[in-house]
Design a protein that fits this description.
The chain is 42% helix and 24% strand. It is α+β, with helices and mostly antiparallel strands. Strands 2-3-1-4 form a four-stranded antiparallel β-sheet, with helices on one face. Strand 2 and strand 3 form a beta hairpin. It starts with a strand and ends with a helix.
């Protein structure tokens, strides 16, 4: 299973609205999980079993809680039984296809 998720607090009381400290706490949980992962400016992608992935998302959400009075959590999942290594495999197939496109 591949999951893309974003978790961030609101009600932080910060004048600049920044949530980078909270997001860093969540990303640390993801990276320490040992599951394949990738973080971009908007989402973190994670690959594993249903139980593994949602355990990490729960713990990442818990890590954000002290930073604000509310939490926003967005999740998108690609559930494809029998496939592993898709966090990189999907990108490799895409890049190959882009290279084969003739203008």
């Amino acid at each position: 299973m591949l999951v893309a998720f974003s978790v961030a607090p609101s009600g932080t009381g910060r004048a600049d609205g920044s949530v980078h400290d909270a997001v860093a706490a969540a990303v640390k949980i993801v990276r320490d999980s040992g599951l394949p992962n990738r973080t971009s400016s908007m989402f973190t992608e994670l690959e594993g079993t249903w139980d593994e992935v949602f355990d990490v998302i729960r713990r990442a959400t818990d890590a954000v809680a002290p930073f604000g009075s509310r939490i926003s959590l967005v999740i998108k999942a690609d559930i494809r039984p029998g496939y592993e290594g898709e966090i990189d495999g999907k990108i490799e197939r895409l890049e190959k296809a882009v290279g084969e496109v003739v203008s």
